[in-house]
Amino acid sequence: MAKSPEEQARQDIDELLTAAGWLVQDRDQANITAGRGIAVREFPMKSGHGEADYLLFVDGAAAGVIEAKKAGATLTGFEIQTAKYSEGLPDGLPAPRRPLPFCYQSTGIETRFTDLLEPDACSRPAFAFHRPETLADWLDQELKQPGSTVKARIRRMPPLLGEGLRPAQFRAIRNLEKSLGEGRPRALIQMASGGGKTFAACNFTYRLIKHAGARRVLFLVDRSNLGRQTLKEFQQFSTPDDGRKFTELYNVQRLTANKIDTVSKVSIATIQRLFSMLKGDEDFDPSLEEAAGFTYADLQQQPVEVAYNPRIPVETFDFIITDECHRSIYNLWRQVLEYFDASLIGLTATPSKQTIGFFNQNLVMEYPYEQAVADGVNVDFDLYRIRTVISEAGSTIAAGHVVDLRDRETRKVRWEKADHDIQYDSDDLDRAVVSKDQIRTIVRTFRDRLFTEIFPGRTEVPKTLIFAKDDSHADDIVQIVREEFGKGNDFAQKITYRTGTARVVTKKAMADGSEAEEVTWVNSGIKAEDLLSSFRNSYNPRMAVTVDMISTGTDIRPLEIVFFMRTVRSRMLFEQMKGRGVRVVSDTELQAVTPDAKSKDHFVIIDAVGLSAEDMHETQPLDRSRNLSFERVLELVAFGSRDKDLLSSLAARLARLDRKLTKDDREALQQAAAGVPLAAIAGALVQALDPDTHIEEARRRCSAGVPPAGPCTAGVSPAGPDSAIPEPTPDQIAQAAADLLAAAAKPIASNPALRNRLVAVKKSYEQVIDTISQDQVLFAGHDQQARQKAESLVKSFERFIQENKDEITALQVLYSQPYRQRLTYEQVKELAEAIERPPFCLKRDALWRAYELLDRSKVRGSGGKILADIVSLLRFAMRQRDQLQPREDDVRDRFAAWLAEQEAAGRKFTDEQRHWLEQMRDHIATSMAVQPDDFDYAPFAQKGGLGKAYQVFGPQLQPILAQLNEVLAA
């Protein structure tokens, strides 16, 4: 006899409970001591509270209830009834807590769960029931320390320490913890590639374990090499408050077998292996983890079905972090994620609408590529296109020609005369048809233009990653690259999922007596991971050819060229592939693999396939006005242009310059910008260009009652249909945008001194390399014109003095008679930097040699070595000194004269005092003056500092300092 829907639901619930370790009993046969968890059917509660379909006993005490409903029932409508059961336990029955904390509603197909131990308890979907020992553990913790649930402890976590975190990482962690504390079950963090998502994840994982009491965290990746990369990140992560490595405090397991280590706090796994484990497989082929999860998922016709696995209960993990699983994981694989009763945290650089929807529209952090470039976290890119006839339009092989026909699997080639014209278009290339000359033409053009147009002036091939269509195409490219560059095997390598395997072709006898070739793949002993490591850290290979293996997540910081020889037709995948080039790298690390590189301030995308608007989407460099010089961009901004492309280019140029700055130049520019760092100016420009920022600002003004451009509309605002906040009109948004752009441009537009300084600094870092003009010898022999050159140099120096005597503070001081003030070290430094910049480009040592050549009798010693020597050069050039001598010698002469005057006046200094005085003399020689603060540093600090100096000189210390500064700094 067929079961009723209610009976079927009870049977399904019984099976779920049994699988989770519960003993299901009828009330008249109950034995609540028979196991840790007993589920008693149809238990009557107190009068007025009805009969619970199941009363759950844990360790002999009532702990929870289940309301059973037939399949299809909407369970949230029965939460009130379950609460009545929870509150209606008959008096006298043992219960560690009333009302009963664990409330379920279930149809056997769908289950919801409410944990009343949590603050602001809210029901959530549950794949299955929790195990009795889990509920016992939760109860025990709460009884020992009320408010010990993870959600409660998140709300009490100590403040996040910003040290060691980038601003974007800090905001991401702070926003995530706020979301988790509010009880939101899913949160998505979007950060540009290279923005430090994994480092941020290590940080908040540590906080969730240490401060929130998380028992176990799962870190999901979609490819094995990303799992290895994540493990390395955890191993290298130093905890911010303790200082020890994460793995010194907590076990971290990367799953290489189908067994979860129960003592590990963090488990790292691929989605493929986790699915295999849930299915109950004893083992899993590791090679299936080398391909991306979406590739493996494509083999599935339908979303994977997951059943309850008692060996991996739903409460195994408290948090699941999904890293760069932005494609299939939220489609075919989503049931694997939803199996666990865990909060889900997504990390991605390129979220799709589907991804954002999966995370309940809870995007807690947005950090786009443009902002990352402005902040110096990413580098900008240039786009270089290579077009060929065959790439654009295909070709035709005329009938009668002998053509090569290659078997896809065995790659065996045979020859056959074409009996008809073979026409093919660009879409057929490298799949149905391989045009060797098309590949060769692209590679040859790249080779010929590399050092003249793409990276002019360089001699080493930059680290280059080429994306091919498939493994066979990659093989063809590698061979042609080696031939065209005339290099060996190490120069270019293929790194695909088939790297590490070798094709073996064998003959197989057929039933009709013929033979067929059969292809198998065997391990070759070469690991793709080893090749990838060499590409990242060693000189060779210079070029790597891949398909999808290095398209997402893989960190290759020295990479400077991303080369597309395949179309993409997916915005997300294109952004991921582009993201391989955006990573910043230190000059030292870059030069270790590319010796002739100076610094990585940009990378180049080479488009050899005609990437369409669909491929590129809205991708474009931050620098969008490349036809304009830096000076012209600054000038247009100064004269009022607020063109968005122009301001975007300004942000890009400032960000690129900021990456090159020396410490001194960075400080000087920040001082010229009234204390605002260059990176902050660039970041503000990018923020002001964001359309979302325009809308937010217009809404803020509407909310504040000061709307621009007329009254706001009565439209529904994001706050909801009942919100009284009106929506801004398009004109108001435009006005807000204009005001934001004007404010962001103001630090540049209103500060001519900063603009001039920027131009000068940029020029000082650049050299024009003339590869066009040809030189010829006019003279070879000893230099007979050295004197003329010296005279020219001296005249340039004196012309600089005349042209700048009213502009540069140090010159104003030197020209004042008597001296109105003493020169400071900062003023001398500013003067020296100005002399060294274009158009004069004068060096102290060269000037010193020029004066020596012109009149050796007036020059004493070898000077120009220290910064302060510029003062000696200036005083000599301005005729304030008859002789040119090093600043140190001049100060020593003055000190000796002062000391003689003191002794003639009857003042004697002890040996200890003489030693201190000589130290002060030497300090003034290099730093222009000596102040009380200087005694906190070497060499004074080692001798006892200012306190010791007062002991040595007593109340005379301050008068002595004043005298020395006046006499020696003159």
Categorize the overall geometry: globular
- Oligomer classification: single chain
Widest sheet, order of strands: 1-2-3-4-5-6-7
The CATH architecture of the largest domain can be named as 3-Layer(aba) Sandwich
CATH topology of the largest domain: Rossmann fold
Strand content: 5-15%
Radius of gyration: 37 Å
Total helical elements? 36
SSE class: alpha/beta
> What is the count of β-strands?
26
CATH superfamily caption of the largest domain: P-loop containing nucleotide triphosphate hydrolases
Average predicted confidence as pLDDT:
81
Cα(first) to Cα(last) distance is: 113 Å
Q: How many structurally independent domains?
A: 6
The description of the largest β-sheet is: 7 strands, mixed
Reconstruct the topology from this structure.
Layout: H1 5-19, E1 23-25, E2 37-44, E3 51-58, E4 61-68, H2 79-87, E5 102-106, E6 111-115, E7 124-126, H3 132-144, H4 150-154, H5 167-181, E8 186-191, H6 197-210, E9 217-221, H7 224-236, H8 246-249, E10 252-254, E11 266-270, H9 271-279, H10 293-297, E12 319-323, H11 334-338, E13 343-348, H12 353-358, E14 363-367, H13 369-374, E15 380-385, H14 389-393, E16 395-397, E17 402-406, E18 413-417, E19 422-424, H15 436-454, E20 464-467, H16 471-485, E21 492-494, E22 501-509, E23 515-523, H17 528-537, E24 543-546, E25 561-564, H18 571-578, H19 587-593, E26 602-607, H20 613-616, H21 630-638, H22 644-660, H23 663-672, H24 678-689, H25 691-704, H26 730-749, H27 752-764, H28 786-804, H29 809-815, H30 825-836, H31 844-854, H32 869-877, H33 887-904, H34 911-927, H35 945-953, H36 957-968
Parallel strand pairs: 1-2, 4-5, 8-13, 8-14, 9-11, 9-12, 10-11, 12-13, 15-26, 20-24, 20-25, 21-24, 25-26
Antiparallel strand pairs: 2-3, 3-4, 5-6, 6-7, 16-19, 17-18, 22-23
Helix pairs in contact: 5-6, 15-16, 21-22, 22-24, 24-26, 25-26, 28-31, 33-34, 34-36
